[in-house]
Amino acid sequence: MCISLLRALGSELGSDPEDEPRVVVPHDEDLKYRILYEVHDTPVGGHLVREKTYGSVSSMYLWHTLYKWVGTYVRTCETCQRTKSAPNVAAPLANLPVPTGCWQSISMDFVFGLPKDKADNTDIVVFANRLSKMAHVAAVPDTVDGEDTPSLF
Question: What beta strand segments (E) does 20-145 contain?
Fold first, then answer.
């Protein structure tokens, strides 16, 4: 009943009636902050920029001044302020040489704070072949450091 009503109202407002319905969030600041936290701050959210965070939130939720809320939340995010560089101070791009064979050039990254697996690991390391984009993923303990990393590959 509610979905058909939302679709009917959306149709009157000129939006596509086939769009997925969104949850209309009431004037509850705590609820809005919780939604933004879940979409922006969790490991899955990844502390993305305003536009990407807005896209994720607006696909599921709707409230008055949503874009402004997302912009303020992302701009005042402590983690983003500590880890992301200022937008006008970007270093010049450096082209990496194109690899000529598989596994001659490798990229790696860590993902932290995931749910525990059977061995109580909460982190993973990802090794990616730059030529074929094939990736190897390994669960690692949260005590892994730079000296341990080469042995993981």
Answer: 23-24, 61-62, 106-111, 123-129, 135-140
| DSSP strands (E only) in 41-84 | 61-62
pLDDT tens-digit series, residues 18-47: 677 889 999 999 999 999 999 999 888 888
Taking the C-alpha atoms of residue 129 and residue 28, their distance in angstroms, rounded to an integer, is 47
**Residue linked to tokens 């008055």:** 64
Q: Whole-angstrom Cα distance, residue 49 to residue 87?
A: 11
Pick from 122, 107, 111, 93: which is nearest to 47 by CA?
111
Separation of alpha carbons 13 and 146, rounded Å: 56
Report domain 2-83's class: mainly alpha
Q: Which residues pair with 61 in a beta bridge?
A: 23
pTM listed for this prediction: 0.47
Q: Which amino acid is at 98?
A: V
Q: Report the C-alpha gap between 146 and 152 in whole angstroms.
A: 11
Mention every residue, 6+ apart, whose C-beta is less than 8 A from residue 8.
17
For the chain, give every residue range classified as CATH 1.10.340.
Answer: 2-83
pLDDT of residue 89: 65
